[in-house]
Amino acid sequence: MIRYIQASSDWELKQILALQQQNLPKHLTEEELDSQGFLTIEHTLELLKEMNAIFPHTLAMDSEELVGYALSMSPKSGDSIELLRPLFSQIETLLGGTEDYMVMGQICIAKSHRGKGIFRSLYHKMQEFLPDNYGKIITEVDTRNTRSLQAHKAIGFRELKRYPKAGREWSLIVLP
To answer: What's the predicted TM-score (pTM) here?
Structure first.
């Protein structure tokens, strides 16, 4: 049975990094990139700790095994990852300086557990864990990652804007 928790230990954060490694483009075939999706950013333990201290990450656990995660980022973390600075700039422009949102920094489900509703449940739990004054979850998806775009759309995300960044096109999406 899958249980959903917030990250609270270095061991859990290290499990995130291990699952992340398995889903980075450098470890996937072209076929997997197209059919299964991919992750864009490789985090460090220090950065995960910094992000987790503000908003704990949401984890899907099968017994003691991490089978999925959704990383949380506060607007206060906007300068921590160079590749994400344009995201926060776009949000600032669109929302006019409000900080009533949380950025989902990355979501990943273990290959063995895909198609079982964990993606949807991670977002549902993330919403439950948010403080009451945070009404939105915002993220961006590389438009080449069609599996991710379709999954986000299926649970209610809507597109705010598309824009180029780092030689790719990105879709800025929100879950109201």
So the answer is: 0.91
